[in-house]
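Dear V.,

Thank you for sending over the compound details. I've combined the ligand you provided, adenosine-5'-triphosphate, with the protein sequence from our construct and run the structure prediction for the complex. I'm sharing the raw inputs here so there's no ambiguity about protonation or stereochemistry in the SMILES, which I know was a concern on your side last time.
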Amino acid sequence: MRVAAPGRVRMKLLVLSGTDAGRGYSLDQREYIVGKAPTCDIILPDKTISRQHLRIEVRDEHVLAVDLDSRNGSFCEGLRFSQMELRPGSVITLGTTELKVVPEDSRERAMPLSGRDHFGALVGTSRKMREVFTLLERMAPGGSDVLIQGETGTGKELCAEALHNESKRAKGPFIIVDLAGIAPSLIESELFGHVKGAFTGAQSDRAGAFERAAGGTVFLDEVGELPLDLQPRLLRVLERRQVKRVGANDYRTVDMRVVAATHVDLEGAVKANKFRRDLYHRLAVLRVTLPALRERPEDIPLLIDTVLGRMGKPPSALSDQTRALLSQYPWPGNVRELRNVVEQVVNLGEEALPELPPLGAGAEQPSGASTAELDLPFKEAKERLIEGFERDYLKGLLERCEGNISRASREAGIDRVYLRKLLRKHGLEDRDGG
Ligand SMILES: Nc1ncnc2c1ncn2[C@@H]1O[C@H](COP(=O)(O)OP(=O)(O)OP(=O)(O)O)[C@@H](O)[C@H]1O
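Below is the predicted structure of the protein with adenosine-5'-triphosphate bound, written out as structure tokens.
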């Protein structure tokens, strides 16, 4: 039996994907062998993993992952490593299994990755989107109310529609109320309805959105815009499914699901006394956050193809050069902005491509990322860009670590042998002082 490590580093390993997705392992021993053999400490039943694939060494100050000459290799952020220091937040990939390192006391749970590349009309293959799809798969059939958070253009409305379409209420109505788009004086009647004569202009009884959504779903877009005085009435709808039309005396019971969305931080609105705490807590029971596009640039090619497909165009409708440019832009307006630009270029020709400053614009461009590269074929341009990034990164790293290779390898989280290889490739090896 191994002795528990008294060390200061306390971390746990969450299995994000593969057949064991969802499991967690506290790293409280000195050493772990990870692989598919039954004798391993952490057994991962994945055909693409070696019998003994990786050793995890828990030291007092740090945790090391050492590849055991595995057939398919161990990777971190797309780079193969033979040895690296594991830090909280590191995600390593062994075969097709992804493992995330988190602090021992983290409340983060392993969210297994969905095998889907779309949920309704939402598409994505990035880890972040596949986590979202897993959540949506679980939330959709249950019928509970859901809060969707995300920046503008991240697909909140598509997400609400998909939740509706994949629920038991799919055959019922899907009613959208955009609270940012209605005059505040009309919101009450729009949501709750009114009786004839309730106010000037109320010429007949009218059912509000909740009643009209009977048997289906109400999508409350920009719920943060709901005036404070109406918030207790929404809370009553959520808790008791009861609505009272403006001017009526009695409550009616309604059977519908509420999906609300916000692009603002509702917790901040609660602190600023603009949103009721009780309503926030009720809404936030089931929450899903759609990641910004800049957090998942690997989804851009698929999104471009999806937009082209929806326009009836083949992927070849855009040149590799334009695609490379679109893949580098940070998209503050998210997928909506990307869609608009793709449509513009397809309709007006590639000369109509607006000027798109690349990611990190404003900062000095890495030496490999000059616009001259953008005239090259995609593969070559990408390689040059990566080379430029590697060179700049290594120079900065060596300066920071005063040429000490051991320190540099620790700081960068890459194996010494690999680091030396990279330095040699870029003619920087003679600066080794370590
Ligand atoms: N993951 C995605 N896959 C495919 N299309 C997407 C995705 N996300 C967004 N879109 C497209 O982007 C556009 C904006 O999406 P949507 O209206 O759902 O965003 P939103 O978050 O509700 O925006 P807002 O906060 O401004 O209302 C739509 O055309 C939608 O089709």
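A first observation: The pocket of adenosine-5'-triphosphate is lined by residues 121-124, 150, 152-158, 221, 263, 303, 306, 335-336, 339 (CB under 6 Å).

Warm regards,
I. M.
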